[in-house]
Give the backbone structure.
Amino acid sequence: QEDQEEEAEEEEEDDDEFDQWEDRGDGTLERGMLQSLLSLGHLESVLNQYYGMWLNKPHLGGVLAPTAVAAAWQLQRWDFLVDVLSNWEGQVDTDEGRFEVCLANSLRAITCQSQGAAGDGVGGKPALRLALEKARGQIMGGLAAASRESYQRAYPLLLRLHILSEVEAGAELLAAAGSNRKKQLVVNQAWT
């Protein structure tokens, strides 16, 4: 009798632990799985899983989009990137996700420029300039508050700003590669 009661209690505890990890419908589990695949470098798997999850649970598209965007730009799958961004860009809900979207837009703009496409954004401004300005604006808002609190909170934001400056410098270097060799050498010296 006592053994049966103990087994029943253990089963209840197991059920409680399982309920803690049960799908709540907010995309936490799905996002975690995609982040794990991304961290492991299984980029094609990220895109395949994202597409499958999006078909089964379309309401999670905005939550899962930043991870799919990161995999797409790392694979240079610009067509997939454009599809994801056109559907979900405005619905990304985290600062990290919005940064990933802006970074992807910046890299896509560089690719368009290097392939000779106009890549114009709004109001005649180049798409790269618009994407970088948007990303910097988002970072600066959080950086002001984070810098007052601690270095640990500010560091990731400073790192993002550094990434954007690297993207901008790389774009300038690519633009100079075709037109002015002397300018390219000067830029190269600035990097060393």
Q: What stands out?
A: The mean pLDDT is 80. Residues 35 and 68 are 9 Å apart (CA to CA).
